[in-house]
Amino acid sequence: MVGFEFTSLPGPVHVVLVVLAGFAGGAIWGAIPGFLKAKSGAHEVITTIMLNYVSYRLADYALSTTFYRRPDRTDPISKPATVAYPHLFGSAYRISLGIIVALIVAALVAFLINRTTVGFEFQAVGANPDASRAAGMSPTRTFIVVMALAGGLAGLAGANQLLTVSPSLTPGYSSGFGFDGIAIALLGKSRPSGVILAAFLFGAMRAGSRAMQAATQTPVDIVLVIQAFVILFIAAPPLVRSIWRVRLGEPVTAEILTRGWGG
């Protein structure tokens, strides 16, 4: 709605407003599973997957209204956004300002997690909610804030999609990017720097798959196979250790710290 309304605003202001609206909408939606986990212990993976389908139907309903639907169309497609990210290397390339925004956001997330008290609370509550509660932290508040921020980041991704290649909302708008994000987070070991590199890898494979099929007749599904193998190889070491009951060696740093405390 923000994308096709407020057309009287200057372009840069309108872009910022769309980005903020995307973050706010995602944060509100993400806070719902955070609240459910904090209050009832409901697993966030289950509730977020279930809420995906709720969001699909809400989008379908919105696209059936005259406010959202494009006036010259009868199929479910919204009015297009009247603003977009500028291209960095000309309109011949699809590289836009969105990639700079994504890198800035990743840097901010890294700073939040590794350099702030709030980030320390996030990690502490995630590792052990009971110990964190005993230390004076609030797991309930942390669950909600973490999920709201995660939803806000997903909303930024949606805003980027709107401001680049898909200016109109349609059914199936997300193209499964959220599930790609799970694999990317696994490959990047949930570290912002690793996530950036993994995102470039997956993005290059997805962007190049169609050109590959046109040039060599290699099916685009080979990209999905490669992604599946990546996830399998990441999960393989813990699976092998579990099946064969392989014990990890004691870390050297832990032994040094223990002797230091005793001394």
Short summary of the structure?
This protein is mainly α. The protein has ten helices and no strands.
Main attributes of the structure:
single chain, 263 residues, mainly alpha, 0% strand, globular
Strand content: under 5%
The outline comes out as: globular
Q: What's the total helix number? A: 10
Structural class: mainly alpha
Relative helix content: 55-70%
Rg, rounded, reads 22 Å
Helix and strand element order = HHHHHHHHHH
Largest sheet: none
Task: Work out the oligomeric state of the chains in this entry.
Answer: single chain
**Total number of strands:** 0
How far apart lie the N and C ends? 64 Å
Low-confidence stretches: 252-263
Query: Mean of residue pLDDT?
Result: 86
How would you describe the overall organization of this protein?
The model is unreliable at 252-263 (pLDDT under 50). Helices cover 68% and strands 0% of the residues. The protein starts with 10 loop residues before the first helix and ends with a helix. With 263 residues, it is mainly alpha-helical.
What's the layout of helices and strands?
Layout lengths: L10 H30 L3 H20 L34 H18 L1 H11 L1 H6 L4 H24 L14 H11 L4 H25 L4 H24 L7 H11 L1
